[in-house]
Amino acid sequence: xxxxxxxxxxxxxxxxxxxxxxxxxxxxxxxxxxxxxxxxxxxxxxxxxxxxxxxxxxxxxxxxxxxxxxxxxxxxxxxxxxxxxxxxxxxxxxxxxxxxxxxxxxxxxxxxxxxxxxxxxxxxxxxxxxxxxxxxxxxxxxxxxxxxxxxxxxxxxxxxxxxxxxxxxxxxxxxxxxxxxxxxxxxxxxxxxxxxxxxxxxxxxxxxxxxxxxxxxxxxxxxxxxxxxxxxxxxxxxxxxxxxxxxxxxxxxxxxxxxxxxxxxxxxxxxxxxxxxxxxxxxxxxxxxxxxxxxxxxxxxxxxxxxxxxxxxxxxxxxxxxxxxxxxxxxxxxxxxxxxxxxxxxxxxxxxxxxxxxxxxxxxxxxxxxxxxxxxxxxxxxxxxxxxxxxxxxxxxxxxxxxxxxxxxxxxxxxxxxxxxxxxxxxxxxxxxxxxxxxxxxxxxxxxxxxxxxxxxxxxxxxxxxxxxxxxxxxxxxxxxxxxxxxxxxxxxxxxxxxxxxxxxxxxxxxxxxxxxxxxxxxxxxxxxxxxxxxxxxxxxxxxxxxxxxxxxxxxxxxxxxxxxxxxxxxxxxxxxxxxxxxxxxxxxxxxxxxxxxxxxxxxxxxxxxxxxxxxxxxxxxxxxxxxxxxxxxxxxxxxxxxxxxxxxxxxxxxxxxxxxxxxxxxxxxxxxxxxxxxxxxxxxxxxxxxxxxxxxxxxxxxxxxxxxxxxxxxxxxxxxxxxxxxxxxxxxxxxxxxxxxxxxxxxxxxxxxxxxxxxxxxxxxxxxxxxxxxxxxxxxxxxxxxxxxxxxx
Length: 794
Ligand code: KG4
Ligand code: ZN
Hints:
This protein is of the alpha/beta class and 794 residues long. Helices cover 36% and strands 21% of the residues. The protein contains 24 helices and 28 strands. The strands form 5 sheets. The chain has a 7-stranded mixed sheet. A hairpin with a 2-residue loop joins strand 14 and strand 15 (333-341). The longest helix is centred in the last third of the chain and has 27 residues, at 695-721. It starts with 9 loop residues before the first strand and ends in a 17-residue tail after the last helix. Bound molecules: 5'-O-[(R)-(carboxyoxy)(hydroxy)phosphoryl]adenosine and zinc ion. 5'-O-[(R)-(carboxyoxy)(hydroxy)phosphoryl]adenosine is lined by residues 462, 597-599, 624-625, 627-628, 639-642, 645, 730-732, 734-735, 762-763.
């Protein structure tokens, strides 16, 4: 069957709850009849395994093909964070792979429509399970036309609190109840309330409910994001701490700032900032018709008692406040209450970054828009807000005094934040026309693209979202990395929940950028490479953070399936090994390989490609982890590797004699916790004795202790196996001293030493593409029911 009507076939999916909801609807061209096929089924924690095949099954049952789909609809939650991300990432992949619109739907709305479809009318309360004793409560009126919301913003509250609130509402004794929260919290209901629960079959969102709910958006998959109702635990805790404490101490930001010589840092406003914030405010608005905020006004914003959630951020440099911005969450809108930047630091992108943080928090709290007021005639501010996506929504006459009008501006969230030097972190995509126009190609160009057998590879195992495109001969045509370091740095390490959220936010933009780069590398002028022009899709399957891996894997599966391309799963550790092939294409086993990254430390005998004997691993910390912990102990920020190696440049490696663990011949195991303890003890002792620590000497001596052991064990393994080749990989192999030492010392013994290009040491997709290209060549294809594997080994 073929569809003549463009957008006739719509496929909806949702994995926010234990229900894998999936349905397809279309209009039969012959009869004009509306048709529906559903694949809804309960599926606990297996959504990533079953989702793509369920979509495929539904299409097959409908007698339709994946190329017939004109639009995808996805449930955006709220629900299980990972569940929501699996559905959204898969849907983004499907829509990008097919180049069709993706629309988002609130899962709570879908629940209401599911019940409406079953014929229920009147008031309905949806009690959706939010885990940890909490629910997402949502009240509706089900009229003849469909459900109507009696709330603005999805939110999360304790189950008992939600019920108590509801019991106060008029007509409660008529409200019928649904939602998967009833499974766990049904016991909190009174008898008459239990009697008002709808049939249990209707407690979960159905695919049909999703299709009926009002889908929103411009169709661009880049802009469809989960509905969250709270910040990550790490952020919540930090906020509480800052709001109470007298100190505004917070970790310094990432190495990117440090190395660029910038000290500007951002963090949520703390109680200790109140005085400084008020002073900055007063200085900024001197002479304006605006009452400056007093310290106690700021303090009352930060307390726990505020009725509507707030988000306040400051920009600071060595303790001096340079800027602040704050907003208040009112229903689904964040009302920006204040933006102030030190006059000596205007035009540095500070206001924009502050607003991006405030609006990001608001989005995590369920907001979909931002609004603010600006004085008519303040062209600088109006221009700044316009760049972020704000447009004029109205005017308040005389708001700033006689004849001084306020312009009310609103913007959809996420704000438009172009990637540039002022904001190197991943941000939301710019608005664009979607679907993309089909690329214009000549016959020769088409043949050339096909001949090249392009493989697109995705890496999302930790805090980098990376995409590369490689051709059959190993030419790297695109190599995009979007790093989240700035978002994790103030916590002193990667926060898994933040990492997962960021991957979902940027994955489409990073894929798009890679597709554009590849077209440019090939000299094509007719548009970016289309998914249909690829030969295969590769993705990191593991090891790594499970919630981060899942985003890449789900997206890759949807993308490959919709584009009709084979899927190739890659082991991240093999990627670090293959990074050496990017520097030395004729590297051939047998050889010895050292892997030193943030999560792994191992010495490997590579007997043949794919035949790995792990000679030894670390018993405790990984080498990169030890660098990070030492840097943290010194208050140097995250990640530690680059900072320590920079400091070590001018230090004396013999200054301090740190221990070398498990140093006997034939023992290939590593242990770094003893060294870490020795360094911490040293810092404590020196500080107690009132001596200042010579950081370069400490860094150089620490490096020497780590690298001596690495060298000796590698040398012993080379001798024992008779291998004449050696290579290294992982984030720590970016360390210049380690590279130099191995090249010089092993080189002197007649060993050929290969080190990866610097850009391919820390996590990247080029190395994943190199593995994927070879696996694809050998026909090692993965089925669409693979899942991320956080514990994969070599
Ligand atoms: O391979 P990678 O990017 O991520 C994992 O797969 O774990 O490695 C990140 C690790 C971090 O611990 C970081 O501190 C370390 O690599 N690193 C370095 C250097 N650059 C990054 N360690 C020492 N010296 C460096 N120059
Ligand atoms: Zn890695």
